[in-house]
User: What shape does this take?
Amino acid sequence: MKKWIQKYKDLKYRYKLTIMMILCSLIPVCVISGYTQIRTVQIMREKEQIGLEQVLEQSVNSIDNRIQIYTNLINYLTYSSDLREIMEKEYSSDYEAYLAYTEIADPMFTMPQLYHEEIRSITLYTENIQVEHGNTLAPLSVAQNQTWYSKINEKGTVQWLVKQGNKKEILAVRKFYRQDSIQAMLVLTLDYNRVLEPFADLLTENRGGLILDEQENVVYSGYNMDKHYKPDKETSLKYLKEHYVCIEKKIEDTKWDFCLYQPKEELEKSVWTLLLGNIPVLLLCLLLILFLGYFFSRKMVERLEQLTENMNQINLGLRKVTVVSQSKDEIGVLVRTFTRMMEEINKLISQVYEAKIKLQKTEMKALQAQINPHFLYNSLSIINWKAIEADNEEISRITLSLSTYYRTSLNKGETMTIAANEIRNIDAYLHIQLVMHDNSFQVIKEIEEAALSYSVPKLILQPLVENAIEHGLDVSEKEEKWLKLSVCKEGDTLLMAVEDNGMGMSEEQARAMLTYRSKGYGVRNVNERITLLYGEEYHLRVKSRQGEGCRIEIVIPVNKEENRYE
Assistant: This one.
C-alpha cells in the first residue's frame, strides 16, 4: 500500500489533478446511478407484484361474485316454503312424490340453470323421498353413499366441495336438520372449469396457479411454464412461496386460498433489461468524465508546467522568464511574482558580475604587475642556455614551453588575443603536461588554419584542457588515452572544442558543471566570461557519457583581427 501511495506522490501534478477530478465526478455519479438503479429495480418489482395482485384480485373477485350468486340461490331455496313442504310432507306413494317433483321441485330447480350455464344440477336429498326423480329429488341415503359426503362437516351453512375424478365438479351443500338429525340436503352441482375459468385464464406464459380449501386439499392446480421453471412440488404452498413470487387471496364463503405464482427469474427479466439498457449511458458518462477530467486538468496545469520548465531552464543557466500570464488567479500571481524575482536576481547578478570582472581585472593586473616579464624571460633564457650547454634537450624544451606559455598568458595585460596565440599557449601547456605524465596520453589536433585569425578571450582553453586531464584522463584506466583539440568556423561562429576519452560523467553532472553547484571554478569561469562578453546565447556546451568521455565546446561569434603577435 505504501508503494502505491509513494507512486501517487511522485506523479506529476497534472495527473494527480486528473485523478482527483475523475474521482470527484465519478463517485457521485456512481452513487446516484446505483441509488437510482436500486430504486428503479424496487419500483419495477413492486409494480410487477402489484400487477399480479391486481389480476389475481380481479379473477378472484369474479369467482367470488359467482359464489355469492350461488350462495344466495341456495339460501333462497332453503327458505322457500314450497321446498320446506316437499321435505316435511309424508308421501303416501311414489306417484304423489312424482307430482311434487314435476309440479314444484323441477320448475324451482331447473329455472336457475337457464340463467347460469355453469349450474349442472340442483338436487334435494330428503328422508321422505324414496325414489330418485331425475336430478332434482333423491333419497337422503343416495347422498350418504357418495364419496364426498364424509367431507361435509356439521355446520348448517353452505359448504363447498370439489368432486374429484375424471369429471370434476364443484358442489355447494346445505344441510337441513330436524332436531339433531339430518332431515335433508340441498346440493348445487357446478361446472368445475366454468366456475374457475377466470383463474385458469391467468395462467399465461410462465405462470402457475394453486387453489386450496380450508383443510389444504387441492381444489385446483395448473401451470404454463418452460421446463426449467416447472415446480417440483406444484401442490405445496410452502415450496411455491420459497422458490417463486407468490400472490395469495382468499374467498371467505368458500374458505379457498388462491395462489398465483411466477418464477423470480421471469420477474427479474424486465429489471435486467432496464439495467442493460442503462449500461451504454453509464459508459458514455464515464468516458465523458475521463475526457473532461483530462482536458480541464491539462488546461489548469498548463501554465504551471510552463513555469516549471522555465525554472528548469533557469537552473541550467538561462536567466530569462518566458512564461507570461495576465490572469488574477494563484498561478497568474505566481508567474508575475517569479518574473519580478528573476528581474531582481538578474539585476543583482549583473551587479555582481560587473564587480567580479572589475576584481578579476584588478587581480590580473596586480599579478602581472608583480611579475617582471623581462626578468622572467631572461631567467628562463639562462636556464635554457645552461640546458643546452649540459646537452639536456628535455630541460631546454620544457623551458621554452614554459617561456612560450607565460609570454602568451601575460600578453602585456590584454584580455583578448587571437586563436593562433591561444593554440600556441595550449601547445606549450600540453608539452609540459605530457612530460609530467610520461606521455601517457596522445594529443590530437583538428585545426582550420583560416580560423586562427579570429579574436578570442585569453586563456579559455587552458582550464578546459586541465579539467580534461585531471578529471578525465588521470582517473581513467584505459590503455589508450587521447585528448583532442578542435578549432573551426561554423557559419558566423567560431567553434573551439576539447574532447577526451576518459571517465566521462552523467547527464546530471554535465548540467551541474556550468552552474554554481559545480565544485570546480575553472570551467564555470570560462563559461561566465563568454556569457559576459557575448551575451547569454553564447555559452559552453558539455556533451558527456559515463565511462566513454567528455566533449566541451566553446561557441563565440567571429571577429577577424590582424595578428599582432606574429
